[in-house]
C-alpha cells in the first residue's frame, strides 16, 4: 500500500507532468514558487496548485526537471479559478485507488485511439460519475467506468484529456485525502480539490455532440 506523501514530495513527483515541454515553452517549463508559499505549475491546459508547499523567502520559478532558475514573469493563474461551482462530484479517500485505476484504464484506451489527444468524457448520470469513451473507428468501441457514487442527480457530460484526469487522481491518491470535483458549464474549467490546499484545474475540450455543428 502506498504511503501518504508530503506536499513537497507530491510536487517533486508530479510537478514535471504539469509543466510545459520543449524549449519554446519558456517560463511554463517551470514550477513557480509564489510569495504566499504556494507552488503553481501549468502547461496552459491543466494546472497543479499546492498551498503551503515551500518556504522560499522570494518568488522564484525553477525548471520542473533540472531545478535551474528560469528568467521571466510567471503568468497570474489565480483568475482562472472559478469563484463558485454549480455542482460537485465527491470521491472519498477509501475509493480513490479504485477511481484512479478506472481513470488509468480509460486513459490507456484513449491514448491507443489518439496519442496526441486522448479524449474521454466525464459523465454524470443518475447520481454517479463515469469516465467513458465512444469511438466509431473503424468499428464501434465503447468504454465506461464509474469513478464515484456521490454525484449530482442532474445529468451532464464534458469532454477532457483522459491523461490529465488520471494524473490528477494520482496526485490525490498520493495525498490520501477525500476529493471534490467542482464543475460549472461543460466548457468551463473543472477544479479537483481537497481540504489540504491541493488543487488541479483541467480545461475541458469543446467537442460537438452528434447533430451539432462545431
From TrEMBL:
* Official protein name in the record: DNA polymerase III beta sliding clamp C-terminal domain-containing protein
- Cross-referenced InterPro entries: DNA_clamp_sf (IPR046938)
Which superkingdom heads the taxonomic lineage of this protein's source? Bacteria
> Which species?
Cohnella lubricantis
Amino acid at each position: 500500500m502506498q504511503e501518504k506523501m508530503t506536499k513537497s514530495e507530491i510536487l517533486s513527483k508530479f510537478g514535471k507532468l504539469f509543466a510545459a515541454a520543449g524549449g519554446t515553452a519558456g517560463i511554463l517549463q517551470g514550477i513557480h514558487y509564489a510569495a504566499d508559499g504556494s507552488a503553481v505549475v501549468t502547461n496552459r491546459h491543466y494546472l497543479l496548485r499546492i498551498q503551503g508547499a515551500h518556504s522560499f523567502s522570494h518568488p522564484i520559478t525553477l525548471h520542473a526537471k533540472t531545478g535551474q532558475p528560469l528568467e521571466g514573469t510567471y503568468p497570474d493563474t489565480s483568475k482562472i479559478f472559478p469563484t463558485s461551482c454549480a455542482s460537485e462530484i465527491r470521491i472519498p479517500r477509501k475509493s480513490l485507488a479504485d477511481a484512479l485505476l478506472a481513470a488509468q484504464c480509460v486513459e490507456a484506451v484513449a491514448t491507443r485511439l489518439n496519442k496526441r489527444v486522448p479524449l474521454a468524457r466525464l459523465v454524470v448520470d443518475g447520481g454517479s460519475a463515469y469516465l467513458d469513451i465512444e469511438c466509431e473507428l473503424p468499428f464501434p468501441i465503447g468504454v465506461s467506468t464509474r469513478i464515484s457514487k456521490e454525484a449530482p442527480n442532474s445529468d451532464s457530460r464534458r469532454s477532457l484529456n483522459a491523461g490529465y484526469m488520471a494524473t490528477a487522481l494520482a496526485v490525490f491518491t498520493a495525498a490520501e485525502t477525500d476529493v471534490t470535483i467542482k464543475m460549472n458549464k461543460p466548457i468551463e474549467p473543472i477544479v479537483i480539490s481537497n481540504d489540504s490546499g491541493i488543487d488541479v484545474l483541467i480545461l475541458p475540450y469543446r467537442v460537438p455532440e452528434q447533430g451539432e455543428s462545431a
